[in-house]
Amino acid sequence: MEIPVFDIKGLPGQIQPDLPKLRNLYLTKYQNSSIPIVIDNGSYTCRAGWGGLPDPSLIFRNLVSSQKSSQNPDVLVGSEIPDSDLYKLSIKSPFEKGVLQHFHTQEQVFDYIFWVLGIQDTQINNPLLITETPCSPNYSRDLLLELVFEAYNIPSINLGIDAIFSLSKNKGPNSSAMVLSFGHQASHILPCINGQFLPHYAKRINIGGIHCTQSLLKFLQTRHFYAKNLILWPLAQEIIHNHCYTALDYLSELESLKLGKQRKIQLPWVMQQKPSDEELKKKQQQKKQQGQKLKEIAMKKSAEKRKIAINELEDLEYFIKKVKKNSSEFQEGLIARGIDSYEELKRKINCLKTRLNLEVNDSERYNLLNTPDNELTAEMVKQKRIQKIQKAAKDARDLKKAKTQEAQEKIEKIKQSDPEGYLKDLHKQRSEILQRIDDRKKLKIKLQNRNSRSSQRRLRVIADLSTEKTSDDNFGSKDQDWNIYREICNDNQDDEEDKILLLDIDTQISSIDKNHITTLGDTWRIPTAEDYQILLEVDRIRPAEIIFQPSIIGLDQAGLCQTLDQVFRLFPYEQAKKLESCVFVTGASAFFPGFIERIEDEVMKMRPCGNKIVVEKAWDLELDAWRGASEFCLTKEFEETSVGREEYKEFGGYVFCRKNRHFASNLYYETPERGDIPVKRSKNR
Amino acid sequence: MPKVKKDKHKQYGRETPFKNTSFSLKTCSTKPIKTFKQIIQAENYDNYPASVPNYLSIEAAPSTIPSRKYSDISGHVSKYTEPKTNLRYSNALEYQIIRALTQEHIDTYLSLRKAVNVIR
């Protein structure tokens, strides 16, 4: 069955805002009004715009590029960052794990928002509505307020939770629902009764969209270890958006994926062109020329050396012939040439002659061999021994040469007369070597286990050797004794010898039989498109499964359904019935096909039988939070619960604790001092 | 060379006349940038009364049911674990693949589910 292959098309890039249009809008409509600016601060994208509008004017990635090159001395925010730079290390986000942490970056994002919206006066007259995460730390809120009031002098600000705004947009302001909000870095379960968010029953799971993409990326990179540089974040994002879905029943889906539904992704690759004949010829010619040059140089050198040697030889021969042996001239001549004695002179002449490939008289070389010992001096006896050894070595060498020549001639004969038989013989040898290598591997594995028979045998040998009671230890006098080392020693060199033999035989076989596949050695062939394809099997359903089973990526938290079950049980039965009749899913990470059906299935499994269970999705998972906030900011409740500049100056960062809460606000509580709760002291002190 | 006057209201390449240029978190604020861990620690969540929800209290608890084991190589359900490397596998073919892996590769597989033991 063929597996369909998909190409990489790339996701759509960021939308660039229409600057003159926005400036115009500001000048005409919003400059002197007090219509608030609504900023939905998400950790993936930030959505900003004027309150009351149906759509946000700005949607951009909430990232700041701090890399300042000579061309671009400025800081780039959001859609100004080119797509290729989006995943570099120099990119910063103001969020960490869903909490505002890096306020310098947040400041630059605010600069960008206000500038793009067209504000160029010295004073911003419009209030703000910013979204935050449920139960965000007081420190983040503190710094946010400081930034807003002291750096930008904004008249008033209000805060709210984005998921509840989305609920109010879709279901109206007074609805009860169990809101499941799937964000970029965390997911929340937020129960709402009669429109009011109940923070005491909220729960957070530390898995969001970023974990799905990250885990898919890592899985693919680990499986295709060689292609780590080809598999990057944009590819993982594209796979998630186009090829992943949520399984209704994970285990049965795993089985059915094996049978069908697999997909292949074609990575971009470049065909390696086979070098044309001309290029090959050129290369060969270049090689030849280089070889010839080297040869010339070598020949010159050897010619020079040869000249010197010939001159020396002539000189010595002349010297030996003309000058009398026992004269003082002779001695002087010897000393002048740095030679000790007459014998050494002769030896030197023979040496030079052999070097120049002239014939050397064997009888002269081994002249002492035939004379018996008693006729020679002590020195000459030594020399005789040396000559004996030399002759024996030479004889052995000649014998070996003759033998190898004979063997080669034999092989040639067999090759010509019976090629098939020869090939069979080679294959036999090859299989024997492979068998030996295999046996050695198995033995190695067995030896690692202390209780196996082979390691017990080995220990027995060592123990025998050590406890052998012999008065005179003549271990090692025979050659066979040293073979014991081969049995005891763990790292054997025989493996390498066998590998060399195997290579040799392989080359011989492939010279005859072109279709032979070698085991060792390179099997390079021209790469095809199939080499650059990734198979997606389990990866199609695994990213969406992480929120249900966080143990897949090693996170020790309960999955979505377990926590949902816990939250449902916190409510009395009547209220729980209200909540389960409307389970509301929002947040951009819930886009997987099949996600809603899966949640409905899971909720039905955990609630009492027969209850009405309806799971709904927000009309627009990504933008409905902004739209809900935009609707909210025109109401009276917004004005009543906002915090103004004077109030902030009077009360500081905890000003929100004194204000009334609206339906989408967090529960505000002042950070207690350390030591607020008294430490119990014992009586005897 | 004459000094080029920097536009007072042009911070970070953008004209921001609405901004109080004497205040900038980078130059003016006495508070250093805190990491996420430092923020959570400074919040003093231990001393919150039990009735008030805070960032840590709404975090979901660890799972009460044992996790299902999936193979590290393919992702299918795995019944077996390789004792030497602690990798999970589901059939004999995967076992052969595991035997042929280098130590670096094994560590990468284990780090996917945070099972790598850094101290050996």
TrEMBL record, chain A:
Disordered: annotated segments: 276-295
Record's subcellular location: Nucleus
Main location class: nucleus
Keyword field: Coiled coil, Nucleus, Transcription, Transcription regulation
SMART domains on file: ACTIN
Domain of life: Eukaryota
Coiled-coil intervals, chain numbering: 386-417
Reactions catalysed: ATP + H2O = ADP + phosphate + H(+)
Pfam families documented for this protein: Actin
Gene Ontology CC annotations of this record: nucleus
The family this protein is said to belong to: Belongs to the actin family.
Identification of the protein by name: Actin-related protein 5
UniProtKB/TrEMBL annotation, chain B:
Domain Vps72/YL1 C-terminal per the UniProt entry, residue ranges: 69-98
Keyword entries, A-Z: Nucleus, Transcription, Transcription regulation
UniProt main location, coarse: nucleus
Matches recorded under InterPro entries: INO80C/Ies6 (IPR029525), Vps72/YL1_C (IPR013272)
Region (Disordered): 1-20
The keyword Transcription regulation is annotated on this UniProt entry: yes
Any one of the GO BP annotations: chromatin remodeling
Protein name, as recorded: Vps72/YL1 C-terminal domain-containing protein
